[in-house]
Amino acid sequence: MEFSPTLRQDSDVPLYRQLFEQMAAKIRSGSWPRGERLPATRELAGQLGLNRTTISAAYELLESGGLITGQVGRGSFVTGEPAGSAGVDWSGLLERAEGGKAVYPAAGGRAGISFAMSRPSRALFPLDEFRASCAAVLTRSDLADILQLGSPSGYEPLRKYLMEEARRQGAAAPGDDLLITNGCQQALDLIGRVLLRPGDTVAVEEPIYTGLKSLLSGMGAQLVGIPVGADGMEVGQLERVLERERPRFLVVTSNFQNPTGATLPLSARRALLDAAHAAGVPVIENDAYGELRYHGDALPSLKQLDEHGGTVLLRSFSKVSFPGLRVGWALGPRPLMDRLRHAKESADLHTDQLSQAVLLDFAESGRLEAHRARVLKAGAERLEATLESCSRYLPAGTRWTRPQGGMNVWVKLPEPLDASELLGRAQKEGVAYLPGRYFAVSRLDPGSLRLSFAGLTPEQIREGLAILGRVFRGAVESGTENYEPAPAMV
Amino acid sequence: MEFSPTLRQDSDVPLYRQLFEQMAAKIRSGSWPRGERLPATRELAGQLGLNRTTISAAYELLESGGLITGQVGRGSFVTGEPAGSAGVDWSGLLERAEGGKAVYPAAGGRAGISFAMSRPSRALFPLDEFRASCAAVLTRSDLADILQLGSPSGYEPLRKYLMEEARRQGAAAPGDDLLITNGCQQALDLIGRVLLRPGDTVAVEEPIYTGLKSLLSGMGAQLVGIPVGADGMEVGQLERVLERERPRFLVVTSNFQNPTGATLPLSARRALLDAAHAAGVPVIENDAYGELRYHGDALPSLKQLDEHGGTVLLRSFSKVSFPGLRVGWALGPRPLMDRLRHAKESADLHTDQLSQAVLLDFAESGRLEAHRARVLKAGAERLEATLESCSRYLPAGTRWTRPQGGMNVWVKLPEPLDASELLGRAQKEGVAYLPGRYFAVSRLDPGSLRLSFAGLTPEQIREGLAILGRVFRGAVESGTENYEPAPAMV
Questions:
Q1: pTM here?
Q2: Residues A376 and A361 placed together within one structural domain of the fold
Q3: Which residue in the set A87, A125, A346 is minimally distant from B144, CB to CB?
Q4: What does B220-236 look like in DSSP terms, one character per residue?
Q5: Residue B167 counted as domain residue
Q6: CB–CB contact B336 A186 (8 Å)
Q7: SS3 A411
Q8: pLDDT per residue over A221-274, tens digit each?
Q9: pLDDT value of position A103
Q10: Distances (CA, A) of B2 to A165, A451, B37, B41, B47
Q11: Low-confidence residues of chain B, pLDDT below 70?
Q12: Which of B21, B64, B88, B188 is the best substitution to test chain A (most A C-beta atoms within 10 A)?
């Protein structure tokens, strides 16, 4: 019985559950046929370098799910998926092909350093300040209103706060409205629901944030990727695409794009707006990372620069504070916002009000700004450690972006290195990253990979990049013949 | 300048904002043309019976939105929507017809009693118990994990708790999985996204919950309504529809259906499952109200009775605890649940984790059960007051359902009374309800209306129904000639 699971130590899903899911998949796919004997827990624990209780917990889940059965003194056997779905043919109903979700690569080995997740550092969460904001909410006189069914527009005090902030910043035009969403992801989803018709084309960045790619593809949109260079989206290319393809809308990340870290310079912002205006194409400005600028001066957002009401700005509390609380917002012209609000009401009535109230207090009390200052300081150090270590450890001929903020650096290894193929070796050495193919729209650069640095300490970053450098330089020296392919990850 | 706004005193949206929105609509629609002079705040305040500061706040919003301009000593004038949306033709892009959302009727007058909202009583929220559960969460050792990006499946400790509860109840089959959603509404939305293809037919109840009607219609589904009688969906009709229409799926509320309050008897549950199984049609069991049984014995859910894996069960914390916290779940066969989880990840990554953790503590600590006991006691009294008052006050020939739980009673007035037309009179007397047309799929019974009693005290219920009885009896006596139509509400 072959079994080499891909386990993520840093995942929110416990190891026993990851193990269970991958075993269950083996059984359901028929790789482990009915009657097959599973290894003893002690044996598998030794083989995978895991605690025996982890294995037992996974076996228990398999057993309670009816996938295996234990026989005293004989061991555990595969019983297979329980029979009896005669009536509803689920696989027939669900036939529409949908690529499986990316399973993020785990950092194995001793180092256990993962550059794979673009998320803030758990260690920097200001728990006491968070508790103080919760305490403040719990004494609010409108606590019962927070717990009662609310408005699809959002918790009104938060909406008002964000709208006033947007007015002060000159981001809100007179005809604008603001809608609270479950993070930027839901705002993108609602925009797709409201604007997309079957077969529509959407202009996006190449490489693109994976969550946007799977969202738009899942809605049946045709994606056209506009290459992103060190200075963000190539506006000349965009102009040609706008003219030729007449996309339904354009999604662009103005600051510290995921995955490249690139930021659009001011002149490109203006040129992009002119091109979109001339083509009559709406601009969806995804600005999840804009608050995380470690160096240099902030640029005005596309929304601030747009004098023609063609831009929708998406922002969120997730990257700068707590992504487990799903609160973001969309700001744009009222006719669109009215429709987004209706779509929001159909989707889930409204965003959770407890978190909206807590984040409002976190912001109003000044705790968000104080936390942001700490995040910016740590981010600057982490970014610096990343760029320095790239320069010190990566093989000659490697190129990488030099962002001034955000969470990601984009690396291009010299030919003929293949970041997907090398991931297996890196994981054996205890370091993980996401290869470029996760982010490709139509052009795959096999040497590309994303380093998400925000969740790691400078020490981990240096150690991780030293290891990656060794793995990549080793591949340069040994040629490309002896690649071991990485375990399947899609 | 004509202006008679529909204002909801019981709304979460402040009065000044309701006022602002309705004035802005007048300006945007052109009913109030550019240059028109607005009444002075004092004058309008007197006219509408509102505080002058409310009017001023609404005017301020209009002014900051650029819709009106104030001139010292002359008053405020309509400036109209700011010009300049040359590039993006939003109204063209948004051309797809979508009926506006229902604006819930307000209870005006002195009584101010609204039977319009199917939601729990704000006054019964156990704020101290809620605070205690928040405090417990804030001392959890995994607090930082709660704040970090989580899993699309849901917060694992809550998922495990709900899965174990479902196993104990015999609701979870061996091949089942459970997904946390933002309430039942999002579960319905995800199911639609995953299962529906353009032009598909869906079998639903007639009358139907409005949120489900607008969701499915918005997705382009053709709805076929199966009449709901005092004993729930008419299964004989369902059988014919399943055979003739081959719907993509069936959505059914097993307990205390919204709007009728009807519950499917055991024999009908079995017959429904047999019919769906024979037709190979999945059953979506919406059980948002099942926990709110005030009398009689609980019946096994369709999910518990289904031996063939064709049913998905949707439940939620909203109706029995706090609807402002958006946490529900779906339980069903794993192939479907895998797809729902992918759809969930695209929609908003995952459900808010703070509320998931708080509700888990609320349940595990026994506070939910204690709260439910109080809600059941209050609900029984309110239901009794409703049924008694219907019997005492409504005109001869009126019929109504006699639910054993939930939040709603369905009333049919004797012909030729029209519940939509009479709403205006009722509102003038200070009482609101939702006429049957909000819930119609294809068959409109003009005499029908929904009374949502859970949010009102027995005293309010008696007073409200006494007034309604007077209005309805008055209409019977005076004939139907003198109806004043209610203000537009759609």
A1: 0.81
A2: no
A3: A125
A4: TPEEEEEEEETTEE-HH
A5: yes
A6: no
A7: strand
A8: 999 999 999 889 999 999 999 999 999 999 999 999 999 999 999 999 999 999
A9: 67
A10: 34, 62, 12, 15, 11
A11: 1, 12, 29, 64-65, 72-73, 80-86, 95-103, 479-490
A12: B88
Q: Same domain, yes or no, for A143 and A159?
A: yes
- B301 vs chain A: nearest CA distance in angstroms? 18
Residue A47 pLDDT class (50, 70, 90 cuts): confident
The pLDDT value recorded for residue A485 is: 47
Q: What is the pLDDT of residue B47?
A: 85
pLDDT for B80 equals 59
**Number of structural domains in chain B:** 3
Give the CATH number of the domain where residue B22 resides: 1.10.10.10
Residues B131 and B43 in one domain: no
The helix (H) or strand (E) run that includes residue A250 is strand A249-252
Which one of A64, A195, A323 has the shortest CB-CB distance to B149?
A: A323
Q: A352, A355, A359: which to substitute to probe chain B, counting the most B Cβ within 10 Å?
A: A352
- Mutation target among A346, A355, A356, A358 for the B interface, most CBs of B within 10 A: A346
Residue where a domain terminates, one of B337, B365, B393: B365
> Does residue A203 sit in the same domain as residue A348?
yes
Is the CB of B211 less than 8 angstroms away from the CB of A346? yes
Answer with the one of A338, A365, A392 that is the final residue of a domain: A365
Contact B131 A138 (CB under 8 A): yes
Q: What is the ipTM of this complex?
A: 0.81
- Across A151-155, A399-403, B26-30, B209-213, least confident range: B26-30
* Residue B168, number of CB atoms within 10 A of its CB: 9
| Average pLDDT in chain A | 90
Residue A9 lies in a domain: no
CATH of the domain at B218: 3.40.640.10
Q: Answer yes or no: do B350 and A326 touch at CB < 8 A.
A: yes
Contact criterion met (CB < 8 Å) for B310 and A353: no
Residues in A touching B147 (Cβ below 8 Å): 122, 125, 127, 130, 322-325
| Residue B331 sits in the same domain as residue B354 | yes
Give Cα A21 distance to the centre of its chain.
21
Give the number of A-B residue pairs with CB atoms closer than 8 Å.
304
Q: State percent of chain A over pLDDT 90.
A: 73
The answer on B428 and B398 residing in a single domain is yes
Does the pLDDT of residue A184 top 80, yes or no? yes
The whole-number pLDDT of residue B422 equals 97
Looking at per-residue confidence, does A168 or A14 come out higher? A168
Which residues on B lie below 8 Å from A67 (Cβ)? 174
Domain that holds residue A398: 113-119+370-478
What is the 3-state secondary structure of A378-395? HHHHHHHHHHHHHHHHCC
Is A166 strand, coil or helix? helix
Chain-chain contact of B156 with A350 (C-beta, under 8 angstroms): no
SS3 breakdown of chain B: % helix, strand, coil, rounded to 5? 45, 15, 40
Residue of B nearest to A174 (CA): B65
> Are B233 and B326 in a shared domain?
yes
In tens, the pLDDT along B195-239 reads 998 789 999 999 999 999 999 999 989 999 999 998 899 999 999
Interchain proximity A325–B174, CB inside 8 Å: no
**Residue B176 corresponds to which amino acid?**
D
Closest residue in A to B189 (Cα) is A347
Cβ of B352 within 8 Å of Cβ of A353? The answer is no
Q: Does A286 score more than 80 pLDDT?
A: yes
Angle at A473 between CA A468 and CA A479, to 5 degrees: 125
Contact, A323 vs B148, CB < 8 A? Answer: yes
Residue A485 lies in a domain: no
Cβ distance A324 to B146 less than 8 Å, yes or no, reads: yes
Instruction: Indicate if A295 and A416 belong to the same structural domain.
Output: no
Alpha-carbon gap: A177 to the closest alpha carbon of chain B (Å): 9
pLDDT bin (cut points 50, 70, 90) of residue A150 is very high
Closest CA to A461 of A431, A435, A487, A429: A431
Give the number of residues written for chain A.
490
Are A200 and A217 in contact by the 8 Å Cβ rule? The answer is: no
Q: Which residue of A has its CA nearest to B212?
A: A346
pLDDT for A489 equals: 36
Chain A residues whose CB is inside 8 A of the B140 CB are none
Q: Which positions in chain A touch B211 (Cβ < 8 Å)?
A: 345-346, 349
